[in-house]
Amino acid sequence: xxxxxxxxxxxxxxxxxxxxxxxxxxxxxxxxxxRDRMIAGLLPPPGGTVLEIGCGTGRNLILAAKRYPDARFxxxxxxxxxxxxARAAVARAGLSDRVQLAQGDATDFDTNALFGVPSMDRxxxxxxLSMIPPWEAVLPQAVASVGPTGSVHVVDFGxxxxxxxxxxxxxxxxxxxxxxxxxxTLEPVLQSAADDAGASLAFEMLYRRYAQxxxxxxxx
Length: 220
Known about the structure:
Elements: H1 7-20, H2 24-28, H3 35-40, E1 49-53, H4 59-67, E2 72-77, H5 80-92, E3 99-103, H6 111-115, E4 120-126, H7 138-144, E5 146-157, H8 165-176, H9 186-196, E6 200-206, E7 211-217
Parallel strand pairs: 1-2, 1-4, 2-3, 4-5
Antiparallel strand pairs: 5-7, 6-7
């Protein structure tokens, strides 16, 4: 069972987002590409449960909850600052009865301890792994959090390989200012997590390798 988020990691993320949270969604919509495509692929079963790992401002949870009105949604983040914004946004959207939030660490979490839900039907990470230094540790946790026929959906920055070199260099330098690092080995790490769980992986690069999208699906 998770012992909760580490104080250092939580304080670090709170420091980054104490003020950014007010403009986060307005600015990120222009370059966090592929999020809506990932949400469209969640397709939870009727009455299903969906978890967002690293829910930030709650933007994705709200959109997903509106798209899938028969499902229940859960999200956690290590930053209390972001959770403050997320709770207010969920309340404004009138979704507090279907969206539950908690503080948690993506590298060490237990959905039963956080939400009283032993396993989820779907779990997703949207531009989360590029912000977590020990990001490889997140994926086995994510896969373990879904049931026997569940799936894990991941979208994040790609390696910019389809763009001019100057663009890729500028993007990497700019992202580094926000402690964001594109995960160039995401596909093999996803494949390893899928193999360990006896699951399958569907993976694709989007927008000339600007973003990458992976779905791990359990079959039994």
